[in-house]
Amino acid sequence: MSAKKVYSVCGMCTVRCPIQVEVKDGSLVFLQGNPHADGIKGAVCARGSAGPALVNDNERPQFPMIREGERGEGRWRKVSWDDALDFVADRLKGIKAKYGARSVLFSDRGGPFRDLHMAFMKGLGSPNYSNHDASCARNVQHAALSVFGFGRKDVVYDLKNSRHVVLQSRNIFESINVKEVNDLVTALDKGSRLTVIDIRANISASKAHNFFLIRPGTDYAFNLAVIHALLYQDLYDARFAHLWIKDLRELREFVRPYTPAWAEEETGIEKDRIVALARELAHAKPAVLWHPGWMTSRYKDSFYTCRSIYLINALLGSVGAKGGLPLANKPSDVGRKGLKKLVDLFPKPQDKRADGVGWRYPHFDSGPGLLHLAFKTIESEDPYPLKAYIAYRHDPLMGFPEAERLKKIMQKLELIVSVTFSWSDTAWFSDVVLPLSPYLERESILATKNGLKPYFFVRKRAVDPRFDSLADWEIISRLSRRLDMQALAFESIEDLWTFQLEGAGVAIQDFDATGMVPLSEGPKYWKVDELKFKTPSGKIEVLSEKLEAQGLPSLKPYQSPVAPEDGKFRLTFGRCAVHTQGHTVNNPILSEEMPVNVLWMNAEIAQEMRIEDGSEVEVANHNHSGRMKVKLTELIHPDAVFMVHGFGHSLPVESRARGKGVADNLLMQGGLDIWDPAGGGVAMQEHFVTVRKVG
Ligand code: SF4
Known about the structure:
The chain is of the alpha/beta class. Strands 5-4-15-14-13-6-7 form a seven-stranded mixed sheet. Strands 21-23-22-25-20-24 form a six-stranded mixed sheet. It binds iron/sulfur cluster. Iron/sulfur cluster (SF4) binds at residues 10, 12-13, 15-17, 44-45, 47-48, 176-178.
């Protein structure tokens, strides 16, 4: 029998690239990026190619389990799906009867399939759907909302057509999105310039024309100086500014003291280089893309850094422009109907959110709220108790600071459920583990990709589950049936897809040829005078009414970051190209590629401390420490040390990851309380560690 092609969606990270899988006799034989998808070019990254290893891995949850011993003890009872789901449904019913539906909290990792989860929570009657984003991109999301009135995904990163790309809080060649990597390589081949601003020379920096090794925590100063140069040296796009930027005069006045010479003192970057960058950008405008960042939960002023990036893009006229940040088209923008939403099956819950988003904090996006504030609500029971928590493919015990404190907080919960395809600290600490089929073994609901050419796409099941696991729609449908939410209790994925496609003018067979259904012929760019912003004025707003109403400045005066005390270093962290946070560290192939993280340290400083390249050190903060090897380089700022996030696993069920490397989040004492009230993100790079040679 010849191999059949199955179109699906990668699930090895949250990018979810379209893929094509070849299957023969029920087995995976080849996997590649979907060759029909724009910008993918048939590629997957290293993690994507390790998807089959995830399927073949025996060290993943293989059947539903209910906790036997204490939380975190690791004693489990193997149960049937009926028993597991009856247990969860009965507990949820009991908690709902005692504390109300609002006492249930759910978190996932966001993305195109979240409609199902949001519908489940709405059907339950709880407003407390959340995701991981308080420890990721909330600052940039809130920055976009404050400036444009719409979210960060309502613009496209048109890397392919850019003439100058600036990466700051974004490391495209290591924190990989396959289309972004391909598009940036295409642009570089066509002569685009690349500028990287970072505290260390990452892989993206190695491909840059300009690399600025910046003092940690001073990005906002750098950006204010760029705005100063653009405005005071008449380098900005005056026509665009006249059309679309409200409060330009206030911005000009605000940045008056923030000259490039001033910024040189703060950032350590020569003023002439800052001015030269502003001139280069002005020369390339409007096809300039200063990336607003992805994982921006870093410093206390990261939100303002993100705002300044959007304002720089606006001053260069790149907002809406080809090669800049054109507006993303939804189906309705190209004359089509969107997918029918599952979340519309149920009425909006009446209760306010437990995390305060939307009422205590009206300036935040109430969509997924802020999970760290929900955790604090579990602790305080203010405004009401939270008693059940469902973590869907989410590991806050590794993703947020202070795992031990979080565990204590979670002990106040009467039910913790993890839906997961790999072990995690949170799953290990749960009462019930519901094993999710890995993405190659499951279908998902249909989803929409908004963009220059919006399209619908499908994830189809490539192979049958090896173990006793289920797809998320199966878990949600079976739970919904038990919880009397019949509208969400679908019998088959075909029924669910048919529901979603109602009225969209598309049939499920239309996905057969390529896995996608394009909704427009070609890319649609909006003309500069046709742009639409969702702010009160309809323009790009420098001053935000919502922020000011909360007593938060729209233009925050710069504050110099705290310098590390003698013998201490600012702890910084990031990604590498072969792992996705913690969940790939135990993957049989990827663990071989990179089994352990190391500590990047400035070579000159290390020499003073008699630390050699490759020697073992103890990294410590307060009462936590870990041992790891050092990598010495001149290309990291001397104030900082750096490690790749996701290591330091301790679970006995993960033989390849256990005891390898150090978990950065354990070194963030007090970190749940360090967050930005304007942007909402947890500030995870406001911690300092000592480094001591051992052995
Ligand atoms: S970037 Fe890599 S891991 Fe992420 S979805 Fe794409 S192929 Fe998969």
